[in-house]
TrEMBL record:
Keywords: Signal. PANTHER family: DIHYDRO-HEME D1 DEHYDROGENASE, PROTEIN NIRF. Gene3D superfamilies: YVTN repeat-like/Quinoprotein amine dehydrogenase. Residues 94-217 form the YNCE-like beta-propeller domain. This is 40-residue YVTN family beta-propeller repeat-containing protein.
């Protein structure tokens, strides 16, 4: 049985098919879960009672269910090609999985691990997020520069919204009224940006240029401050949304990708795929506490 609690962070390591368990008191990796070879485990979410983990595995087009009490994989379901991000709907018990290479969303019964539906979306869907009541699913389509909006009752796509170039990751704000979409950039000719969408009207509120290659976004104690990873410059920015400008930045590990705030709102964490570390940042004073070595190519962050 794994000792998983509110002081635990779980990191998915795509390069060696493992999950790293980090204790947020000692700030070190205390255990590692070894999954099956050639999974490429990209993203992980938990169930409502923190008994099960659901893990997307791009290399074999599956999602597996890991029992934290039995300490083993207990079920696997095959979805679309190259499943990346997933989200669990607390309202209906369904998992929604973005399949980047088959341009679809798989709907999976999380309890029975049965595929319920395949929903076509735009090209290269990568990230998925639910609105606050679970009635709508938002999907970032990287190649078609759109956001698909899916009704989770009917499993039908209702809208496709242009949200600027290369939407990759996104974050719903605290009250659920705005969606922050990261428009990443793999060209030296232009900057990346953050697109802000009104989730009720489904209209773009703002677009703010930022950095070189922004990858992910989150927020902390100050509702007007966004924290954004930049993979090319190896930094995390603080963006003041009201003033529309960067007010601070800090260097982290190499090629930072994912970003999350821990459950106590004390630390900011980034996964750094360039040097296989997780950076721990003091959220209040905004300084780098330490870099923790984890598995190869850390991607997803789960704060219990």
């Amino acid at each position: 049985m794994r000792n998983i609690n509110a002081l635990t962070i779980i990191i998915s390591n795509a390069g060696d098919d493992t999950l790293s368990i980090i204790n947020m008191i000692s700030l070190r990796e205390v255990a590692k879960i070894f999954l099956k070879k050639s999974f490429g485990s990209h993203h992980v979410v938990e169930d409502l009672c923190s008994k099960f983990l659901y893990i997307s595995n791009p290399y074999n087009s599956s999602v597996c269910k890991y029992d934290l009490i039995l300490d083993m994989i207990i079920d696997t379901v095959y979805v679309g090609s190259n499943p990346c991000h997933l989200v669990l709907n607390k309202k209906n018990g369904s998992l929604y999985v973005a399949n980047e290479d088959s341009n679809s969303i798989s709907v999976v019964d999380a309890k029975k691990m049965i595929l319920q539906a395949q929903i076509p979306v735009g090209e290269m869907p990568h990230d998925v997020k639910l609105n606050r009541d679970g009635s709508l699913l938002f999907v970032c389509n990287f190649k078609t520069n759109t956001l698909s909006v899916i009704n989770t009752v009917t499993n039908q796509r209702e809208r496709n919204i242009y949200v600027n170039q290369n939407p990759y990751h996104m974050r719903l704000n605290r009250d659920g009224k705005s969606l922050y979409i990261v428009n990443t950039n793999f060209s030296s000719l232009r900057k990346g940006s953050i697109t802000i969408l009104d989730t009720k009207e489904l209209k773009i509120q703002d677009k703010i240029e930022i950095g070189k290659t922004p990858m992910d976004v989150t927020y902390g104690l100050n509702k007007d401050h966004l924290y954004i990873t930049d993979m090319e410059l190896n930094v995390v920015y603080i963006l003041d949304r009201k003033d529309r400008r960067i007010i601070d930045s800090i260097r982290v590990g190499k090629m930072p990708l994912g970003i999350e705030v821990d459950s106590r709102n004390k630390y900011l964490l980034t996964t750094n795929i360039g040097d296989n570390t997780v950076s721990i940042i003091d959220l209040k004073r905004f300084y780098l506490v330490k870099n923790i070595k984890v598995g190869k190519e850390p991607t997803g962050i789960l704060c219990i």
